[in-house]
# Entry
Amino acid sequence: MRPIQLIKSTSLTLRLTATTASTPTSVRRLPPCRPFSATPSRFITPRKIKKPLLLPGAAGVPETTPLPLLESSPLAALMRRRDPFRTGLIARKKGMTALFDAKGIRIPCTILQIDRCQVMSNKTGQDHGYWAVQVGAGERHPENVTKPMLGHFAACETSPKQIVKEFRIRDERGLMKPGSQLKANWFRKGQLVDIRAKCKGKGFAGGMKRHGFSGQPASHGNSLMHRAMGSAGQSQGGGSRVLPGKRMAGRMGGQRVTIQMVKVLDVNNQLNTVVVKGCVPGPLEGFVTLQDARRSHPPNISTSYRSSMIRPPPPNAPKAAKIVNTAV
# Structure
């Protein structure tokens, strides 16, 4: 065996020397290594401490520095929204039926019919603070419409509509020309949509119907307290009061309901109907709004609607000069 000898140099490097009787001494350099320390490296490395935020007007900070965006401000909430790129449609609920898929499974579905849906106007971020498209549907006699609304319909070059809704969009790429007709082929078979409608109003209801309470015993000495709610609060320990949010009897239904990620099963452009999977809130002949699902990828815009879209100018395009009438 070859004897191994460690030689320590002045440069704090380790050399390995192998000596033999027949061959001269040969030295092989090892890569430099850090000196051994009993303290873990995570305690040696200094922690990165965030610099404190200096507000405008402090020492060394000019007053023109913009303030950070607050997470609870309306602008921050608007930036967190994931609005769809396209506008939605207004349809009528016609009823429910069933379809069978390729495997023979019965799928309940709801038929929605689009009734003369047109684009009314656009809301821009520069003028209104958000991006939206105003859509109207249905038909109304001009005698039953107020004069301000008649002027609005005349400016939009549309007939008086029975219902007008706004659909928020992400940016200016979803703006459309006023008066554009929207039909059932705005959606595609197999895509996902979000459905919003006002559910049926049930009037004043008790706790068993409104919240599904089991009720009181039906026998064993119970007298006239079969469907009553029972105790509503503490006697002394809870402050002798009914806590806010307690489920009690009251008005049932009549609120806005949103169903997300609903699949479109069929689209008929001749009948102007859209068939969606499952049930839809609201009564028959009630208005329902449909828009691309926020939590899914947006579909491609149909070629028939390319001319109805307002194309935003390129960022480097020169602005058109305003014409000022100087005639007296």
Summary: The first strand starts at residue 4 and ends at 8. The radius of gyration is 36 Å. The chain has a mean pLDDT of 81. The CA atoms of residues 8 and 14 lie 6 Å apart.
